[in-house]
Amino acid sequence: MQNEEKGVPNFWLTAMKNNSLLAQEITKADEEALKYLIDIKSSRLVCCPEFKLEFFFGPNPYFKNYVLAKKFIMIDEVKLIFDEAIGSKIKWYPEKCLTRECSTRKPKKSFFNFFKSLEFPFYDESIDVKLLHQLEHDYKIGVTIKKEIVCHAISWFCGDATCGRRTKRKIEYDNPAAGNLVQKIESLRKIEIELNKLEAEFLEKRRKEEANYVKLCQPLDTKVSYHLI
What we know:
The chain is of the alpha+beta class and 229 residues long. 43% of the residues lie in helices and 17% in strands. The chain is built from six helices and seven strands, in the order αααβββββααββα. The protein has a five-stranded antiparallel beta sheet with strand order 1-2-3-4-5, covered by helices on one side. The longest helix is centred in the last third of the chain and has 53 residues, at 176-228. The chain is globular. One of its GO terms (biological process) is nucleosome assembly. InterPro entries: NAP-like_sf (IPR037231), NAP_family (IPR002164).
């Protein structure tokens, strides 16, 4: 099975491998599966401190999922107090699982471990330190993908970005069509970021208007009920 999706070959794989933190998570076996990665999207709910990452894949010989997601739900985003991290259950094809040994079923290192769901009961007095460290590690990966890879994908793909520092330079391409395609992707990415901001603002305004509506209608409902009695 070959990846027939059109676009810059291995765009997201290259962008992630150029980030030192993510490069440590990606194994050689992971690279073959990540070549089928088409897009990564980040979304955030305005009503609570949480965000979700969605990874879109083309048809591939590793798993049946077309979308793998990871959502981080926080109690306090500033103090890093977690509630849980919900990930997609990967539907691996037989003998294609990258997170466990096929023969012994023992866990092994893989970027796809990132999609494992983790629950951290903050109210429990017995703190699982190992679980907490894993949550913090996954959260760090998630934030890196959200703030760095998704928002500055072109820079990471071209190798112009480092954590906390980005430079711009003119890239020369052997194939002019590839250069034009990268520019189009960058323009569309900027539009997508602006649309996400507008959507977040709209949801926040709607939430406030709905809250005001409830406050205004509550006395009216009480008054109507009183007269009916």
